Amino acid sequence: MSKHSSDSDDVTMSRRRALTCLGAWSGAAIVWGVGGGVPRALGMANEASTAQAAKGQFTFAQISDTHVGFNKEANPDVLKTMRQAIASVNALPRRPAFVVHTGDITHLSKPEEFDTAKQVLSEIKVERIHYVPGEHDALDSGLGGYLKQHGAATGNRPYYSFDDHGVHFVGLANVIDFKAGSMPALGAEQLEWLEKDLAPVSASTPVVVLAHIPLWTVYEPWGWGTADAGQALGYLRRFGSVTVLNGHIHQVMQKVEGNVSFHTAMSTAFAQPKPGAADQPGPLKVDAGQLGKLLGTREVSVVRGKRELATVDTPVEGSV
Amino acid sequence: MKFLILGLGAVLLSCAGMPGEAADTTVEIKTFAFAPQELTVTPGTTVTWINHDQTAHNVVSPDGKFASPGMDTDDRYTFTFEKEGDFAYLCALHPHMVGTVHVHSH
Predict the structure, then answer these.
(1) Residue B37 vs residues B29, B33, B50: alpha-carbon distances, Å
(2) How far apart are CA A311 and CA A59, in angstroms?
(3) What ipTM is given for this predicted complex?
(4) Do residues A206 and A307 touch, judged by C-beta distance below 8 A?
(5) What are the angstrom distances between the C-alpha of A13 and each of A19, A32, A47, A314?
(6) What was the pLDDT predicted at A294?
(7) B95 vs A279: CB contact, 8 Å cut-off?
(8) Is residue A81 predicted with pLDDT exceeding 50?
(9) Non-local CB neighbours of A203 within 8 Å, separated by 6+ positions
């Protein structure tokens, strides 16, 4: 166990400090360690102890909801904020192994939006980017436009898996199977694939699941959940460490259920209201000085031999 | 744009066949809802959806009879209903947004 979990008072204090910072959107990056069912703040990103905690670990970065093509009041220049997010990834002291993009790459699935996104994302100094589609990427003959750009790496399917540094990564698509009046779903075909994909993986292997829409029900009236997530989570239950990384809701939320921890990420494009805090979801217009603090990226560290993954959420603009 | 052109073509054909029979109509997309949600029209009517929200929406019938592209703010999508029937649709980006077009002769 890490030294951070040795004293429950310290843990409580760390959590309180971290939650306060998150609530105020202070702009300071926070390292989260999640293990044994309790999320723990390991420290602020600019603290030496945090850098020490991340030392020698396998890390990757998450970017989400770039919404290339969006140009309304909530953010007239999404490429600018996206480039700020990219700069924050490029400025990491240690280059992440790769980047994951958890969907809504584009706003309207237009070919020129996919092209622009690809071009700008190529400015990230990493070897590769793994994508999952968002519902905004599924507006061009379903996922036709998305797969044209990103399908070659995954057998022209929007769901896939790969292994890296002893971690099993699974990318899922929960944006094309939808029914009127219901939350979107993964669908029977994909669930069957997931069950088969996980079957040969040992229970001690850490699993990281990428999907655009949260795999837990954040807020059903706004469709912020996945109708058949329960079945997918059933296949994941036997694993000692499961980390689910989502986008879609444009804000950081975390939840732990048994050995499964769920994290949603900030967007690089625009903020959205807290669940139920407005009549409807959608782009949230905020003061110009606040926007950069509501957008950002995430760095994830995988600690060998431990069940916890540490996540650092970094706004595109610095602290207050 | 392709959808708009097809829609207009259908209007011209239907107008030639039944002059003055079908009054074209509009469905407003506002605050994550279709208004009116239920619409009753006669065959040959052209329905135009207009997105007034700051976020994108679309108009899709689950059985694939019609489907708009992604609609940005102020974008319009037009479809002409030639046959009788009840046509349910939704926004695929926000499946809680649903509507129905009822097409009946009288």
Answers:
(1) 10, 8, 13
(2) 9
(3) 0.79
(4) yes
(5) 10, 13, 16, 21
(6) 86
(7) no
(8) yes
(9) A238, A239, A240
Is pLDDT larger for residue A43 or for residue A273? Answer: A273
Residue A63 neighbours by CB under 8 Å, 6+ apart: A85, A86, A89, A99, A100, A101, A102, A121, A124, A265, A268, A297, A298
Q: Bridge-partner residues for B50, per DSSP?
A: B28, B76
Residue B60 identity: V
What is the structure's pLDDT at A3? 34
Instruction: Test A179 with B95 for CB contact under 8 angstroms.
Output: yes
Cα dihedral value B92, B93, B99, B105, nearest 10: -50
B70 touches A at CB < 8 Å: yes
Render pLDDT for A170-218 as a digit per residue (tens, 0 to 9): 999 999 998 888 999 999 999 999 999 999 999 999 999 999 999 999 9
Determine which of B2, B55, B77, B91 to mutate to test the interface with A (most A C-beta atoms within 10 Å): B55
Distance CA A118, CA A202 (A): 35
* Closest partner CB to A282 (pick from B55, B69, B70): B55
| Cβ within 8 Å of residue A7, ≥6 positions away | none
Distinct helix (H) and strand (E) counts, chain B? 1, 7
Indicate if the alpha-carbon torsion angle A302, A308, A313, A319 is positive or negative: negative
Tokens in use for B77? 């999508």
* Count of Cβ atoms closer than 10 Å to residue A271 Cβ: 21
pTM for the predicted model, two decimal places: 0.83
Closest CA to A105 of A131, A126, A141, A142: A131
B92 vs A contacts (CB less than 8 Å): 135, 138-139, 178
Identity of residue B66: F
Residues 1-30 of B with CB under 8 A from A: none
Average pLDDT over every residue of B63-68: 92
Which chain A residue has the Cα nearest residue B94?
Answer: A223
| CA-to-CA dists, residue B81 to A184, B21, B85, B99, angstroms | 28, 13, 9, 15
* Beta-carbon contacts of residue A181 (< 8 Å; ≥ 6 apart): B90, B95, B96, B98
- The domains of chain A, with CATH numbers, are 7-23+60-315 (3.60.21.10)
